[in-house]
């Protein structure tokens, strides 16, 4: 019930934003045409196509809202500004794409720019204010759910934080029953202690309980069945909290498989064939223009400079572990001086001021231009534009020993860039903390993949090509 209430709140918030932006678009256009002659906006202009672009941009930004929906009623100023910026950015992208595609010179750029600016301000305010007001209106005093909690005595204090996050959905703590007959819980503001679980029938009847939350499955199956039967007899909703994450020491994701319920350590959106097809389409759309238009002249420039500064092969081709840990030959422009084969030197990470790197290659590496040949690996399906960054096999083995979940990154194709790289984790891995953070971001990417996430990472990486971080060398 609580999940449905929260889902409804998120949907209503989204619908309210859509309605508000739609009404504001037409009212603002009418206001400009009537009262602001300095803005050249004619009634002959086809505003409908731009209105549809605004709507498309706003709907595309709904993915960003889903990322923070669990704390929608508790957004800070920075998160509200981030949501507004993402949505207005997508609107602007759609609007200016329409202007470019139609070569429309009749539309006022000043009108569109000022509309987007005012819309950002409105969305920033609504993200911070509206969800709390909607929750109060929808789940106020008339829609409260008297809730009884059942669990071990030591779990009562932990309810405080949970209730603070769910009070907006109408949860009204009515009491707490302990599964330990002889235990007395510590004082807590969460819910009043009402005794042992054998008092459940009386409490359900006297307190008009609408919902029971079982904080753990009782060790005694008989007690568990009695709780279920008594809740059914009184018409109470029953929610059962699982302790799988606490027992395993790792977050889990639930799934239904053939009528059986399972828990897994990671969600995998890319196991959906449609998602894989979309990602492959994105890879081809990005890689093909690079391979056809950008790579040939870049190869010529690098080849010519290499003849003067470091004669030798144009490419550096080395094995890397791909999806399913299958090896493939990864391409990059050679950026180091030729040297006799040495496995130890081969496994050494490039460092700041590394004397193995010839002068022009420092520029290539800093701006990630040495990685451009990997778009060929993307085009033939060995890599993806975005994914966990592959490392040398010798480092693979070393990192596997240091990070327990390291091998999980091989569930998907490796990428030219990844979430870790877009967040500034590039270059030499100097500390265990840096390695753990890179793997954490890689696994987060695998579990939370979306097309919009790929687009965001690609745009962030493109920015770093022109404005490289300090860790790029």
From TrEMBL:
The chain crosses the membrane at residues 12-35, 47-65, 77-101, 107-130, 284-305. GO terms for cellular component: membrane. Belongs to the bacterial sugar transferase family. Residues 279-466 form the Bacterial sugar transferase domain. Its EC number is 2.7.8.31. The keyword Transferase applies. It is found in: Membrane. GO terms for molecular function: undecaprenyl-phosphate glucose phosphotransferase activity. Keywords: Membrane, Transferase, Transmembrane, Transmembrane helix. It is a multi-pass membrane protein. This is UDP-glucose:undecaprenyl-phosphate glucose-1-phosphate transferase. The keyword Thylakoid does not apply. It is an enzyme of class 2 (transferase).
């Amino acid at each position: 019930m609580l999940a449905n209430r929260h889902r409804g709140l998120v949907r209503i918030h989204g619908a309210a934003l859509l309605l508000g932006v739609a009404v504001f678009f037409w009212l603002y256009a009418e206001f400009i045409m009537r009262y602001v002659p300095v803005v050249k906006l004619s009634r002959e202009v086809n505003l409908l196509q731009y209105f549809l672009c605004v709507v498309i941009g706003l709907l595309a930004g709904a993915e960003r809202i889903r990322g923070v929906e669990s704390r929608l009623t508790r957004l800070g100023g920075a998160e509200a500004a981030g949501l507004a910026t993402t949505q207005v950015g997508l609107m602007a992208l759609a609007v200016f794409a329409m202007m470019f595609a139609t070569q429309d010179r009749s539309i006022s750029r000043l009108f569109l720019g000022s509309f987007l600016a005012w819309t950002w301000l409105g969305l920033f305010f609504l993200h911070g204010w509206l969800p709390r007001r909607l929750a109060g209106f929808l789940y106020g005093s008339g829609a409260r759910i008297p809730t009884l909690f059942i669990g071990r005595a030591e779990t009562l204090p932990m309810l405080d934080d949970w209730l603070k996050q769910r009070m907006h959905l109408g949860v009204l703590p009515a009491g707490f029953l302990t599964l330990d007959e002889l235990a007395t819980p510590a004082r807590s503001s969460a819910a009043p202690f009402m005794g042992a679980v054998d008092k459940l029938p009386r409490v359900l009847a006297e307190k008009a309980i609408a919902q029971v939350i079982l904080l753990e499955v009782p060790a005694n199956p008989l007690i568990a069945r009695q709780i279920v039967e008594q809740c059914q007899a009184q018409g109470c909703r029953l929610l059962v909290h699982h302790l799988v994450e606490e027992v395993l020491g790792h977050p889990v994701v639930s799934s239904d498989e053939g009528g059986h319920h399972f828990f897994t350590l990671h969600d995998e959106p890319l196991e959906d064939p449609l998602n894989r097809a979309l990602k492959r389409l994105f890879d081809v759309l990005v890689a093909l223009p690079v391979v056809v238009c950008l790579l040939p002249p870049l190869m010529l420039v690098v080849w010519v400079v290499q003849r003067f500064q470091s004669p030798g092969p144009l490419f550096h081709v080395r094995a890397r572990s791909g999806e399913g840990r299958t090896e493939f030959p990864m391409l990059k422009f050679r950026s180091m001086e030729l040297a006799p084969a040495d496995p130890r030197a081969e496994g050494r990470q490039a460092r700041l001021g590394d004397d193995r790197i010839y002068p022009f290659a420092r520029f290539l590496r800093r701006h990630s231009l040495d990685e451009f040949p990997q778009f060929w690996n993307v085009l033939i399906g060995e890599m993806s534009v975005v994914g966990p960054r592959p490392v040398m096999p010798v480092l693979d083995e070393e990192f596997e020993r240091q990070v327990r979940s390291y091998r999980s990154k091989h569930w998907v194709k490796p990428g030219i860039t990844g979430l870790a790289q877009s967040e500034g984790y590039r270059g030499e891995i100097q500390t265990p903390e840096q390695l753990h953070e890179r793997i954490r971001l890689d696994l987060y990417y695998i579990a939370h993949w979306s097309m919009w996430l790929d687009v965001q990472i690609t745009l962030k990486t493109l920015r770093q090509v022109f404005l490289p971080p300090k860790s790029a060398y």
